[in-house]
Amino acid sequence: MNNLQKPNIYNEYSPFNESIKQYGLDLFDEIRENLSRTIQLGELNPGLLIWSRKLTEFILKYGFYFSKVDHLKLINLYLSILSITDLNYIYVQLCFDMLRHLLRKTRLITRDDLEIDWRILYYWARLINDNHDKIHGLVILPSYIDGSLALCVTRCSPYFSAIATQEILDELRPQMCPMGGSFAGVMRMFSYFLPVNLPPNLHYQGFQLWLSEFFNIWQNIYNQDVWRTRLIDIFSSVAWHNIGYIDWEPWMSQIFTRILRGFSLPMGKLQETPQKYPHFVPEVAKWIVAMIGNRSSCLQYLADLLISIRSFYHPTNMGTFQKNLVEFLLKLTTYFVDRVHLERKAHPVWSFTPLSSYRLTEENITDFVNCLKEYVFISIFNQTYMETAVEACHYLSILRPELIIPFIVEKHFLAIDSMTEPHRFTSIITCLTHIARQIVQQTPSYSQGQTYVLPLLISVLPGIDLNDFKKTSVTLEFLDTMLMQITCIDCSSAVNIRNDLTEIEREVCLSTSKFEDFINEFLNRIFHIIEISSAEISDAVTADANDNTPDIDIQPKVTSILFNIVQQCSSPIFQKIREKIMNFLSSQCLSPKVRDIASGLVRALVKGNPVETLKYLLPEICKSIENKFNNSESTLLTDYKDDIELTWYLVVFAELLRARGDVLLIYKQLIMSVFHQFIQIVNKNSYNAVAKAVINLLESLSCSYPVDYRLLVINSDETFDNFLPIRLWGQYVDIDKVQPQFHIPSIDEIDFVYEFVEIFLYPELARLNENGLKMSNNERLRSLTIIRSIAVGAFCFVPPIESKEVRNLMVQSMVPHYSKYQIRLSKNSTELKYPENLRLRLFIDIGLFLDKLVENHSGDVLSIQKALGFYRLISSYYGIYEHGIYDWSKDFNSREKLSKNKLCGEGQNLRFLIIQKMALKIKELETTYYGPLNEINKEIIFKLFELSINRYSAVRRNAQNDLFYLFNRIPFSYQVIVDRIVELLKSTSEHDHDQIKV
């Protein structure tokens, strides 16, 4: 186990680490065995495609979870496949992509471990780039195969032999003719294949053989041909990988002159004609950054270049050229931070070894930031390219926060009162969001930023403006980013307790006494939005729970902000927040338009402090629900008219059931009494709230999830003798010190789920089977909604249906096309002990009911849609869908981008981001089961296909989406409907003709 290349570090600290490790070892052995079998049997189709895809998924989820020996064997496997000269282009691209994945971590494999023959890749590069058959349609190349080739060669070139450079020159030099049409193709080959990162002892066999010659061509021949961009690509790469070993000083003037010309800027009254082939901005920036160091004149040339084009950065000087100019700033800062990171890594990469005298000094860093900051500040107010500029500002703040933060903060306070340029406020707040971590964090070189925290938080609150959604959106984003990196604890008393505080720390501690005022004002503004939005619409409009207005979009951010406050605040502050929210909600019966915002406040309280929240709020809500039930007419449950007050109580009740399972157990009897009373309610808004409560309850009881996202595991009420909260603001945590805490279902929680299913699911199924066709459309939809909510909540623990594998698929293969291993992440190895498999029971009952429904009530489209949704649940739902993983991953990446510091060591991040990544990896693993096509899934596919040609478009659309989802999930499953399609195509009846068209 200790000789693994680079396992996914987040899996190692998962509560299911042992299960994950064993599953990973078994799965890799299976992948390795089946890849070997495809080669032994000479069977590339479909075995190589299937098991290469599984290897890619394995690497993405487990990392390089294999030994160096196996790593090298995999690389050589795909190289050997590429040596087949008549290989199909599909497999060629597959091998390119696999080599790119396998060689992604250069430091894992050195030149001593691996040598790659460049001619294998060159053979395919020639065929792909000089393929005349493609022009005449005689061969179809896969999409993006040229991109796959370029990336693959880039990853392989560090492992070319020492004599490869001379061999490549001997091959391509005879074809070099700058005035010829093929010169661009030759330069492209050079940019692909020339090894630019050979070790210093081999430089005489590397760039020294060709650099002067190539630069003379670039310097002396000037035309607007694409080969010039290829040369810039070559120069930037060789400069980056050989920092300090190439003297660029004699060429510096020519380089920057050409760079300036490449921007194609309008001069005077003459408009510069855009070049047909402009230089690549990223490559130019990379080249410049690589030339900085050891008192090089590069920084001075860069400063002169920027001065000469300063006016073009002004937001009023509009033109297409601004895109390249602003991107130029971003790429300069990006590559500079990358270079600082690579030069100062604790474990340097063997392929990046700058000469020690050319490594960046602190003075170089300061000079670079001073050189660029003015132009970045100007570009922040360019509304078209603001996002690019603020990202550049983020990188500069990482390098020298003391040169960036004070200026941005000063501009912010000037922009607050600006009446003539309100957009400046939006731009500044966006910038502050991107540099939030540098503001809140104490570092040895800069801690002044913490003095701005409270003034900034308070000053932006007027930005929460119902009349300006853009301003509100960026303000909430800023508050969310700031508050997830600080603790809301009043530290003012620390100045009287500790004697080791600096003057800045004393000032910051005293300012934290304003946290309570800030939170109070924030909640007041949210309450005001809720009240105004609710009052703006009539009772008739409130009946539409799906009112799609911009106000609803602020709900996720408001919830996230309050959650960040609650989970990291002191007990006195939490009590005041809870009381304020309870007082507000108890006096409101909110319309559907604003329920999401208000219920989000409850959700934040529950997630941040479930014990205290349920202790005070759940009994009150249940009492209000019971009073409503006792004091209403007997028709309350059967009245289709929406009772706004009752529905609101049920919505809050549903949010409270998001608490941890162990906390919910305390209130089991109270919770069950509410479900007993209202599970049969027929009003649509009310039963949807009940269904949401069912899902929240069962998932809270049966699923595994993190329960603590705080910055550090500390007692927020601890005295300041032992710790000072402001010193923790924005600090990273080594992953081995995270101490993640996960909810693992206990036996009592599992029994609660079982009891709930017994009491509510089976009677509802029986009622639907007996009277489903006699029910009204609304009653039928209610019944299906409740059943589905129970399935969604409980399926996390329900195993797949055991069914016979379909054997008669036309798969010409001796290699298995599915994995025999399935991971089940369960700490206690417990499953719900149902007397039968719930998936099978629902497949049978709902399937039969759906057949009857389509036959007898084909116009009840909503019920049909709800019923057919069970098929996808039954076949592939185990707590989350793939699209849920994608959304979660997208949210994580956006948060990490805002707070990530590239200069931190590997495995060092904010604690809550590390825990979120751990949870994400667990969910990814839970969606990896792709079993063979069995008889149950075959029946599901048949049923979905028939519904896919239904006469109602809404039914067709849903059925087709689910059908294609299963086709992608289960290899070769599409074959089972081929005969049915052929049958329809052969039919001549008018009815069948209509079906064919859909």
What does this entry show, briefly?
The protein is 60% helix and 2% strand. It contains 45 helices and six strands. It comes from Adineta steineri.
**What is the alpha-carbon Rg in Å?**
32 Å
Strand content: under 5%
Instruction: Please give the largest β-sheet.
Output: 2 strands, antiparallel
Work out the number of β strands.
Answer: 6
Distance between the termini: 54 Å
Give the uncertain stretches in residue-range form.
Answer: 537-552
The computed structural class is: mainly alpha
Helix segment count?
45
Shape annotation = globular
Neighbour order of strands in the largest sheet: 1-2
Mean pLDDT: 89
The helical percent reads 55-70%
Organism: Adineta steineri
GO molecular function: peptidase activator activity; proteasome binding
GO biological process, one term: proteasomal ubiquitin-independent protein catabolic process
GO cellular component, one term: cytosol
